[in-house]
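Input.
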Amino acid sequence: MDAALLAELIAFCGIETEFNDAWGKPTRVSETQQLELLKAQGFDIEDDDTVRLQLLARQLDFWQQPLQQVSVQRLGEPLQVSLQVALEQANTVIALQLTCEDGQHYTCDLTPVDGELTQVIVLDEVEYHQYLHELPWQLPAGYHQLAIAGSAQQQRLIITPGHCFQPEQFTRHKQWGIALQLYALRSERNWGIGDFTDLSHTLSYLASVGADFIGLNPIHALYPAMPESASPYSPSSRRWLNISYIDVEAMPGFANCSRTKALVEAPGFVSQISEQRSKDYVDYSGVMQLKLPAMKSLYQWFSEQKSTTAKDINKAFKQFKLQGGDSLQQLALYDALHAHLYQQNSDYWGWPNWPEQYRDPESDAVMQFSKQHSAELDFYCYLQFIAQQQLAQAQQVAKNVGMLLGLYRDLAVGVSEASTEIWSNPQLYCRQASVGAPPDPLGPAGQNWGLPPMYPYQLYKQAYQPIIDLLRANMQYAGALRIDHVMALLRLWWVPKSAATAAGGAYVYYPIMDLLGILALESQRNQAVVIGEDLGTVPDGIRELLSDYGVYSYRVFFFETAADGGYISPQHYPQQAMATLTTHDLPTLIGFWHCDDLRLGKELGLYQDEAQLKQLYAERHANKQRILDSLHGHRIGGDSVLPHDYPRSSEHLGMDKTLNYALQRHLAATPSQLLCLQLEDALEMTQPVNVPGTSSEYPNWRRKLSQSLEQWSQREDIRQLFSDISRIRKD
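Output.
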């Protein structure tokens, strides 16, 4: 390809050709990688003339619109509008009409040439000018609409605050909480998987020992027809909820419906529930085989009772469907159709592999299915309604028992290719590439997450509505939101499907200032603190920018090292951060100390060779000693977190409860506003939640906690640990 044309294409698509890797080494994206990424975005890289026409069409799509599709501006700054016109129209008066979010209307006339000329471009022998004008109005934060009178031209005008929400209580004391994989909760009452009622009970217990929140794994909607597709980070929809977390016994009618009662009290059913509770790993298929028939029975009861005892519920359900709109209906349609097709043929794992007539949600075949199976669609809508009610109840419990934040939710970085989000909005996503990460310490070969990325330009064309919807949905019933891979606001590592490994990708840029502004607006409106998972390959300046917007950094103990390789004192952690010892992608404390993750990685073939593994063992040995030195050397209130006579050499030292709990108390002394600890570490568990770089090799997202809620909540050692942490956080 012509070098000048390639450079123009790369710039137009926002592809970064040079970056510093996770070790700080300058790295260049090869021309072959650049071309493959352009090919993934639909460009015909084999023919320069065709590529020029493709580029021209995309450029004209932007320049032939006098008003930009969307404009994000900061509250308190001069209000501006950019006008794009052909040169011969530069002296034509344009009548603008502004409709504010509160319904107020304003008008003004502008002549493009009277503004500041900011850009000139010649396309298809036509010269286009871009002019910047200051508008005479002051607008409040919110979503407004700017239009050209007498035309269909409109612009969404978003005015945003400059800072995400922070509770006033943050100025008085520091908060702490527990990270929890909801499915992992055992209890004597659930049906083999943690549910929203378990969550409420856990919140009540943690509040009693001084905790302020529970950090949840993503609870996004997955695939009811394929329960084994269980990764919370590869969802079907990030706007809706995972129905497997519904507590069936808390659904309306459970105590009144004789049909449901007969089903769940049958000896075989009771024994199956008991069997599911006893399993060490969640049997998603087995759980759904129990839950779905019971939930269908209760939906039938609800349908029969609409005009009588369930009158209030029916009213609330109707309102829920109205508010859910097309998105809810699309999810219900997808789930119903998926169940129908998958039952016929297990090869129909998702819409890309469905019969042709079902791949378009607006096809005649899909519309016909929707009409013929309207009750099934309503059933899936009802389950979303119930899930949201139960989640809301859990957050209300947290508030009632005095928690400041209650739940913090986790927003995954994307959806799987088979998702309802892509099925219903395919133009937004690039299906010939997937999101991942370049090589870094967590993934030496790079990571490919199998999640098709959003096109930045299509996101702009849709006036950022998909992002707004995501943030609103996930900030609902939550005191905080953790954004997985928050660097996605700036750039994402795109891996073309043609690439041999994840290292064969490149970064693609997104409009970070627009996205940060929208994040701040939704955070303020929903009163939700924002935590950004800023790990991996972090470009210069991004943490500072996120900090300016009030986004809390995510600081993991194992990565917080000084220049000499030692671990920094907790007192040197930033205040605007959430500190944590480990994460769902890292081993437990005991697993780390005993090198269980390295042994497991070798068994699973994750390392390139023995030399790499040997180096990792050597680094681990050194790091264990540095941790021990840090615990002995850094004091809390003048006292060491370890007994004076505790060993000072890590050689032949196993991790016992003393060392385990000392590490947790050690980090509790951080000035970081938020502290999040893993429940697995309090329970002294060894096996990880997830092993990055694996799918079927390890039972990811299935391992349960070692003890039931009823057992561990009665343990005095755990209560003492949590009480100590509360005391340290208040000092």
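Residues 311-344 form the longest helix (34 residues).
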